[in-house]
Amino acid sequence: MKIVIQRVSEASVVINQKQVASIDYGLLILLGIVDEDTQEDINWLCNKIVNLRVFSDENGVMNTSLLDSNGDIIVISQFTLHASTKKGNRPSYMKAAKPDIAIPIYKNFVSTLQNTLGKPVQTGEFGADMKVQLVNDGPVTIIIDSKSKE
After folding, report:
1. Rounded to the nearest 10 degrees, what angle do helices 39-51 and 99-117 cross at?
2. What is the pLDDT confidence band of residue 43, given thresholds at 50, 70 and 90?
3. b or e along 38-57 (b: 16 or more beta carbons within 10 Å of the residue's beta carbon)?
4. 79 catalytic, yes or no?
5. If I label 91, which of 24, 108, 117, 118 is the partner at 20 to 30 A Cα–Cα?
6. Cα separation of 91 and 81, whole Å?
7. pTM for the complete prediction?
């Protein structure tokens, strides 16, 4: 499981010209899933996300977490995070899980994240053509792969 976390001052998701998600202060998370992802990957990432100290404290130092700052989250499915560009110029998405495997993992991830955060998490729609708008605050962008745990 691979995620891209972006600290935002605002973010929204539009599908078919209708806004389906919107937050102010918080995190926009792009989530890529592979067949081998497990509950262990989900639990580890959810704990990492809510406790990651990427929000500024009273001294302007990134020293507070999403839990400390009471921020919100939008999660977007993003199979292209597992693109392989090794051969040629057309990315291959063979590593990305197919919908029959990815959708239950995605739903489980969102549910686990909500439980870990202690409040609802907004989402896009799995497999939809989404227009994602955000103001990256900082900018702060972090990539985490649950397989390498870096």
Report:
1. 40
2. very high
3. eeebbeebbebbbebebbbe
4. yes
5. 108
6. 11
7. 0.94
Write out the DSSP string of 89-149. Answer: SS-B-TTBPPHHHHHHHHHHHHHHHHHHHTS--EE--TTS-EEEEEEEEEEEEEEEETTTT
Q: Which of 19, 38, 39, 80 is catalytic?
A: 80
Whether residue 134 is predicted with pLDDT greater than 80 in this model: the reply is yes
Q: Which of 78, 116, 122, 123 is catalytic?
A: 78
pLDDT in tens, 52-77: 999 999 999 999 999 999 999 999 99
State the residue for tokens 């929000």: 55
What pLDDT, on a 0 to 100 scale, did the predictor assign at position 143? 96
Q: Which residue in 6, 55, 79, 116 is the catalytic one? A: 79
H or E segment and range at residue 42? helix 39-51
Q: Is 6 a catalytic residue?
A: no
Q: Are residues 28 and 134 in contact, defined by beta-carbon separation less than 8 angstroms?
A: yes
